[in-house]
Amino acid sequence: MKSIFQITALFILINTAVSTHLIAQEQNNHCGTIEKTDEEMEKLPWYGKNEYLYNLKDSIELILQKDLPFESRNRESCNEIENQIAVPIRFFIYRENATDPGVPNDLELQDMMDALNGFYQNNGMRIRFYMKCPVLITDPDKLDMGVAWNQWEGYWANEAVKDPFAINIHVSITVNGENGAIYSPVGDFIVVPRDVYNSTFRHSTLAHEIGHYFGLEHTHRNSDKGRCRQEPVSRTRMYAGFWCNNQPIPRCALKGDALCDTPADPNLNGKVDTSCSYSLSETDFWGDSYVPDEQNIMSYSRRSCRDFFSPGQISVMYHNIFFKLRRNFILNSDVAHVDPDKYEPDDSDSLGVPRLLSVGETQCHSFHSSIGCLDPVDWLRVDNSNGIVGSYIIEIEELINAPVETINVYNTDSNGFRDSEISVTETQNGSIRSFEIRCDAIVNDLLVEVVRKSPIDGVYKISLHTKTAFLSSNINNCNGLGTLSIEELPSGSSVNWTSSNGVTLSNSTGVNVSVTNVENDLLAFWVEALIISNGCQQIIRKSFIITPSSGESYEIVEMIEACYPPSHPFGRYGTVPATNVFWDVNHGNVFPMQGTYTHFEPDQEGWVTLTATAAGGCNGPVEVSKNFYVERCKTKYPKRISVSPNPSNDVINIQLENYD
């Protein structure tokens, strides 16, 4: 296998430093993770020069887009699986006895992994966490893990069971007598309370601790340490005081978490309301009012509010994955195995666990040996709540190693549990196997069991289609009027039409119906067809939104200025009131391209126009633009000297660009 360091060296011409994390004495009660000392922070390659991180992020994105770290493995043919860094997690779950009711069930573990991946992937990080089979440990003494777990007791307990090829996470009832959490650098493990998997609000706690595992600090680090160690609110402040070892570098790149794209933070524990707003009037040592990021995952904001990583934070995590020696197992295991798919864990038919496969949808799944236990089946669910008057068609296309033995289809009972098996008709066309399920065999929803051809690792696609009637319409979204028709209706079928209140239909039966009137104040309505055919029935409902003549007004506001300080090119901009828009800029890049906020990276200095476009009404989209002047962006624009014309006399023009 080609070394990842050889591969990345082709693309990243930057100096890297590996810092050894020593034990500090500064501990937080809320999280429990020991913060880096100032001396440790000074050894970081981005300390005082955040441009390192921006260059790194660009290079890592290029590597992942081209799938370069993984070029030695078989190429999967699914975009859902490719171009992601697969990160294994091993949970050690402590219980009082074999019947302990607090041990997580399959659905809770699945929900937790979905939420964890969402925190990272929704912020643009190309990463997928997957769960190796959990280890259940019966040990009542470890149901409350005390302070010592941050030191040597935890080290030896972790050493006894640790998986060297995974993030090791120990799950107890409480941590330090409360619902805290810890990342311990001593043994390189995490301790979390049980409620990280049974509380949606606590999912961000797990994301927070894994952020520590990948090298992130609290956004409020040293906020209570006085003028020389405190991060100032101003992104350009360089002078802190006579005795403060001042440098000609913005202090946001030196103090706090040493990242200028995370605003100074006064420690938000207990200071953020249920609307996720910080409204106190606290100031830093120099009298500037704090404007913290209440959404940042590495803050102590309200847990339900935390869902954001800054570009700088993402780059720090990439640095640790690619260059920190104790993280080598991540890339090595990613190369060696077929990656788990995004639907894992899905090998149980427990209520709620089988993944929904919708009509018209195609999913990529894999069978793999990297989870440390058997992966014998995948379970999926088909929602049949509206019925069907024809057949469902399930298609399997095997992409790598033909890992699928067969599929089994089951009815569910009235409570959603697996019931009787259904006979299916299998046909094959090339590499695609089709399984037909007729409507007269279906009672409720369906459970689909995809059986692995053991012990083969491989990748397959599964799709769901129908052979049934469908509804077409030409409803005008400006006034709600138009016609609906049932297409491909089986012979001998009957159709009954109904609608929501405020809508007049031309008839109640037949293949076609017209909407002849919609009340003036109605903004949304639905029309429904009940089809009965040969003992089967199907409900098809179509909803419509009457679009106002114009969309709601909004404006673009600047949250963090681009190139402020000059070493930090990324700006953050949003809409007020919060409006989901498509973002564009005439000079540079925006990410994400859709949402209520975006980050903007200019590619030139001077005037730049940022444009937001929201879906409008019948008069078209609502577009808002705002002009910003970009200057002194040191990381993007090198110093240049130009001389003109080629001198033929004693007079020349010299132009200096990007000099202070």
Low-pLDDT segments:
1-29, 69-76, 636-643
Task: Please bin the fraction of helical residues.
Answer: 10-25%
Approximately what portion of the residues adopt beta-strand conformation? Answer: 25-35%
Look at the structure and name the CATH superfamily of the largest domain.
Collagenase (Catalytic Domain)
Q: Can you count the helices?
A: 9
Briefly note the CATH topology name of the largest domain. Collagenase (Catalytic Domain)
Q: Would you identify the CATH architecture of the largest domain?
A: 3-Layer(aba) Sandwich
Radius of gyration: 29 Å
Number of strands: 34
Write down the domain tally. 5
Q: Major sheet: order of its strands?
A: 2-1-4-7-6
Which class best fits the helix and strand makeup?
alpha+beta
Can you lay out the helices and strands and say which pair or pack?
Blueprint: H1 4-9, H2 38-42, H3 51-65, E1 85-95, H4 106-121, E2 127-138, E3 144-145, H5 152-161, E4 167-172, E5 174-175, E6 182-184, E7 189-193, H6 195-198, H7 203-213, H8 311-323, H9 328-336, E8 355-356, E9 362-367, E10 377-382, E11 391-400, E12 404-412, E13 418-422, E14 425-429, E15 432-438, E16 446-452, E17 458-467, E18 470-473, E19 482-487, E20 494-499, E21 503-505, E22 512-518, E23 524-533, E24 536-545, E25 555-560, E26 571-576, E27 581-585, E28 588-591, E29 594-595, E30 597-602, E31 606-617, E32 620-630, E33 640-644, E34 653-657
Parallel strand pairs: 1-2, 1-4, 3-5, 4-7, 8-10
Antiparallel strand pairs: 6-7, 9-17, 10-16, 11-15, 11-17, 12-13, 12-16, 14-15, 18-19, 19-22, 20-23, 21-22, 23-24, 25-26, 26-30, 27-29, 27-31, 28-30, 31-32, 33-34
